[in-house]
Amino acid sequence: MRRFWCDCGHPLFFESTSCNNCGAQVGYDPRSGDMLPLRGNRTSSLFQAQGDFDWCANGQNHAVCNWLVPADQKGNLCEGCRFNRTIPWLGKEENIQRWKGFEVAKKRLLYTLTSLQLPLVDGSTDPERGLLFDFIEDQRSNPVMLESFVSTGYLSGVITINAMEADDLAREQERVRMNESYRTLLGHLRHESGHFFQAYVLHDEALNSEFRRLFGDPDTDYQAALQRHYDLGPAEGWSNYYISSYASAHPVEDWAECWSHYLHMIDTLETAAAYRMIESPDLQRDFRSIANQWRNLSVVMNELNRSIGLADAYPFVINEWVEQKLAFVGRSIEELCLKSRYS
Ligand SMILES: [Zn+2]
Ligand SMILES: [Zn+2]
Ligand SMILES: [Zn+2]
Fold first, then answer.
1. Ligand 2 centroid vs 17 CA: distance in angstroms?
2. What's the CA-to-centroid distance between 30 and ligand 1, angstroms?
3. Domain extent at residue 270
4. What local confidence, expressed as pLDDT, does residue 104 receive?
């Protein structure tokens, strides 16, 4: 993530709604990729000619979004919230808090996908090729829901996230139950976005054959593979070949796990570079140098966390095999961007 500053010179964050120094109300403008004041007269703004900005309707009505829409579109949803197909019932206060957590994570995902220049449009605008999000409850958190069990996943252009994943206690209990070392909303969203782009990758002949070489046959019986994973646990020695035990369940899960780790890496490297802790990573260079930069940074992150009594920030090892798969994710992203630019 890049850094942002208020007109008064004070730092702002991607999630900021106001400046702690001068009190100006601010929000994120997805078109300029900058934090802008809501009703200031910022002369440097590229969009000054179009007038000032207002928060998105979800920001104005529920305080769950800090993205901006031009003031003459007051009451409209921002570019990020237009990706929502379903949100949970808002009669419960905790659902608004959960929704806010979801929006924060989703906006960070959209920021990274957009800055990589991946082809991305919401599914209301383009029902054929667009992406949508269902953020929903099931009977476990709300007895009046029709569905008894909604699992987090991806199907036909829709990423579904169970609202309980935005509940810290419920998510931590699930993490322990599943014996995972890491479980976050952002991690879920990045993983599921990998399944969305997987179709584009498999559609390309050259990428498809490399996918098969690195990850295996994507058409392997999915239900049977997942059942085996949950019944018997991961194969012994999985950590020699996979980034996580779940990645060993099926080739497409391996791909989605690597995709999400690639996004973790480049977002965090960008943040560290923005704070001048490291040199800016050059995504065009060979992946080896990026992987090494990441290994060094993640060790520091883990040590810093341990220094204040927290668990490791990045409890994973990128071995030789995993590095090759991550490099392929990087190449696939480059190809998808090139294709979308010339199609
Ligand atoms: Zn300020
Ligand atoms: Zn919004
Ligand atoms: Zn998956």
1. 12
2. 20
3. 204-343
4. 97
